[in-house]
Known about the structure:
By secondary structure, the protein is mainly α. It has one domain. Helices cover 66% and strands 6% of the residues. The chain is built from eight helices and two strands. The protein has helices at 2-18, 22-51, 61-69, 74-86, 95-111, 134-137, 141-161, 169-177, and strands spanning 118-122, 125-130.
Amino acid sequence: MLWQFYASLNRQVRTAIETEDVGEKRQNVAVCIILATTLVEAFLNIFFRVVVGEQGFSQFREKVMDDLDRRASLEYKIKEWPQLVFGQSIDFSKGIGQDFIALKDTRNWLMHFTSTYETVVVDNITVHGLADISRHEALDGAHATRALETAEAVIAEIIRLRGVPPENIPYHLQSWLGRLPF
């Protein structure tokens, strides 16, 4: 499934970048953001299920499996599981950790959009019930590329926390995502 999500995300990024129509571009970028976040969550679910089955990490199996059964949130899993299993966590105050939180927050804004019901008065005309969609209107091709890069980087960081040497991470990304190491 990870290879499928990753291939779909790459294809969607290309489509988002190549699309000329601004409205279609924003729609494609929104899908990239949603899919990139989904890729990370699917990776966490599968990766940690595998890791806690290994000798040396089996003491965490029950906790991870319980979290999967109760459908723990993405934020919980990415913040808790690396610390629990590897004794290390991602720094969410800067770098890739901060980038991932921003990606997840944008995904959440898109997925859980609610109208602000703003009122605008222009001359003698009052309009009630307007929604602020400025975050959606700001989406462009760079956001699609950044979503892909952020997903790859946060997955690489989880692999690094697992103890994989930096020079071997590209090969692990190939194994987990189908991302070629060049």
